[in-house]
Amino acid sequence: MTSAAASAGAWAVTAVGLEKRFGPVSALRPLDLTIAAGSSIAVVGPNGAGKTTLLRLLAGLARPSGGRLEVGPAEPDRRKRRAGIGYLGHATLLYPELTARENLAFAARLYGVAEPEARADALVKAHGLESFADRRTGEFSRGMAQRVAIARALVHEPPLVLLDEPFTGLDPEAADALAARLAGLHAGGRTVLLVTHDLARAAAFAERVVLLRRGALAADVERGDSEPHDFEASLRAALGGRP
Amino acid sequence: MNILRAVLAKDLLSEWRSRDRLPAMLVFALLTVVVLRFAQPGGSLGGDPAQAPGLLWVAYVFAAVLGMNRAFALELENDALAGLALAPVDRGWIFLGKAASNLLLLVVAQITTAVFFSVLFGVDLAGVALPFLGIAFLGAVGLTAAGTLFAGISVRTRYREVMLPLLLFPLLVPLLVGAVQATAGLLADGRADPGALQLLCVYDAVFLIASFLLFEYVLDE
Amino acid sequence: MNDPTETRFERRALAAEGPVAIALLVTSAIAALVIVRAPADVVQGVLYKILFVHAPAAFAAYLGFVLTAAGGALYLWKNDEQWDRLAVAAAEVGLLFCTLNIVTGPIWAKAAWGKAWVWDPRLVMTALLWLVYLAYGLLRSFSEEGPRAARFAAVYGIAGVLLIPLNYFAIDLFGGRALHPENLERQSLGVGIGQPFLAGTIATLVAFLYLLLVRFEVQGLRVRVERARLDEASGEAS
What we know:
The complex is a heterotrimer.
Chain A: H1 3-6, E1 13-22, E2 25-35, E3 40-44, H2 51-59, E4 66-71, H3 78-82, E5 85-88, H4 100-110, H5 116-126, H6 142-153, E6 160-164, H7 172-187, E7 191-195, H8 199-205, E8 208-213, E9 216-222, H9 228-238
Parallel strand pairs in A: 3-7, 3-8, 5-6, 6-7
Antiparallel strand pairs in A: 1-2, 1-4, 8-9
Helix pairs in contact in A: 4-5, 4-6, 8-9
Chain B: H1 2-18, H2 22-39, H3 52-76, H4 80-86, H5 91-120, H6 129-154, H7 160-189, H8 194-218
Helix pairs in contact in B: 1-5, 2-3, 2-5, 3-5, 3-6, 3-7, 5-6, 5-8, 6-7, 6-8, 7-8
Chain C: H1 8-37, H2 51-78, H3 81-112, H4 121-142, H5 147-174, H6 185-188, H7 194-237
């Protein structure tokens, strides 16, 4: 899978009756959700609402217990589906003994990018990582590691980007820079899905906010023409004052 | 194939910088040899040379288990294992990359231990160095083929250090029968039993294929 | 009881339980009669009759282990929990019969060979399989319940069954040291033993099937009860 093929248009997501159980525990109750190609969407909800489970299902890291899930072009092959997804979880997925550049090059090889070294260099430049690109990521602060992790998630220029609490551990400055980068990804025609508990960030970034509660869809709010501040207020109203 | 090479290179580079697997494997294998030597009837002086091949392979198995557990413990840091699972590739190749790095480290540990062992047990391995290396390699392939698959499982259970030997040891017995038989034949009359070599090859093939196919499911969630 | 989450396979298994229970009563009664009436051995006396349980238990154990692997493979392929439940049931019942086999062996051997435990290849192999399925159970209880535990167990169950042919190969290497009759026990044992042996085998296999069905049903119920309990708890919390 070359990066050119992967960037040929954003991916949509359709979930019908999507369900995930861990033994007797239902992490996600049958859920219907459609995400338009090229949209920006935030998933919010209290702890244990199933946000991370949903994201891991979309990323192909977990298999649904029931229901149907279509990600991207109708592609039954899970392997090819994974080629179009950029995923950033709670962890950075980085090897501490490798430098940032080596981590990026390794990720590029995993995704079969044509010239992994050159791609790693390009990412270092594009994400402004030059000052620490050749140091072991094990020595990095949370913020530095997070920036490399984001570059890693985008190594194959995926048409669908999934991020789980990406602002955690970033100082306000770095968080703002990340927010600008996410906006840029969306503007560049990608579908971006963000899981967060930060309503202000969700309101500033997303066109649409979905609330999960105890594994079920509790609210679905579109921004429409409203200003971020008003959108945030209407979100709070929809959530019944709860974060 | 590229994936195999990438994972292998990544593992070896990581090991070269941290050196946290090979030294531990070596020390553990040597220690096992010494302990077994003193546990022989007659203490440090006597000992039954017929038992030597079995004791050597016990040391190899212990070293291998230690190394393979560590190999996956490294992948758990920062959830790097999920990074591998996300890759749009046949996960069998990821397995082969991990197995190849385990195999390489194990062979280095085997050679070092064998030199030490031949001195301590008064067994002449120098004369049959090449065929011995062949047997050690065949045994190591089966050991890492089965072990790498189960290490991927055990590392994500409770009591993970204990789980790998529990899962692996009963399944290793046919391999050990072949390896010990072949080594014993080599030491006794300079010729390994062809049946034992055949058993080693069959075991290697069976577990390479099975692990290649099953690793897909080990990496899920 | 009509549970909509019950699969068709489970409903059939449940329906089969009654008839199999009756079959179990009938076959064990016949086996008991036939075995009791079988003449005592000239040398071993009545003790040899333990073999009518010993050998069939081994068949049942192997059957259980093959079913564990098959259930695991089906689970990996279809991603359907019922096959995992079948694998769990088969592994546990298989382990039970394997234990029965290993316990009855030494009782007989102590009398016949004068030694309770001999390093006979067949014996070693059964002991190894017993260890494999003990490890299978430990693996399940040491991993968090859920699809991952099921998947890991399936992988191990499939790898475990590979041990059977590999062990036979290893046994061949030692060739000729086997104390167990290599051909079917029935033919190699003395005249007049065939009938009770057959009766014992049938009764044991029916017992295996019955226990398997019950264990399979219990596993399904356990998951449903737990699920209902959790649903109730989360309902109260809101």
